[in-house]
From TrEMBL:
Coiled-coil zones: none
UniProt-annotated catalytic positions: H107
Record's signal peptide: none
Organism of provenance: Jannaschia seosinensis
The HIT domain, residue ranges: 9-121
Keywords, in A-Z order: Hydrolase
Protein name per its UniProtKB record: HIT-like protein
């Protein structure tokens, strides 16, 4: 597990140093529109706590943080019109070098609003 970097962009957003287009905010969670959206709906959902990755968050966050995070994500899917029984969405989190994680603060990408294609190419 990597140490948490207090200067990562999401930590700076949480401190109010960098503006964001807030979609939802709760006691434990902040969600905002991605600045380089990959689809009509592309929201980032982040915990307010100092968690580096999916496994770090789920191993160390309180039950209240985990429930709040997931319920907030579900509410955003419904509000943005991508929740089932609609056309659906993709929820992606990246971790570490092999996962191509760009920001060392756990975050969930909620992406939808168009066909997204295969997530990974099939191996030959």
């Amino acid at each position: 597990m990597s140490d948490y970097d207090d200067q990562n962009i999401f930590a700076r957003i949480l401190r109010g140093e960098i503006p964001n287009a807030t979609v939802a905010e709760t006691e434990h969670t902040l969600a905002f529109d991605d600045i380089t959206p990959q689809a009509p709906v592309h929201v980032l959902v982040i915990p307010k706590g100092r968690y580096v990755s999916y496994d770090d968050f789920h191993a160390n966050a309180s039950d209240a943080e985990i429930v709040d995070f997931h319920r907030t994500a579900a509410r955003i899917c419904a509000e943005r019109g991508v929740a089932l029984p609609g056309d659906g969405f993709r929820a992606i989190t990246n971790a570490g070098v092999h996962g191509v994680q760009e920001v060392p603060h756990f975050h969930l990408h909620l992406i939808g609003g168009r066909p997204l294609g295969r997530m990974l190419a099939r191996e030959a």
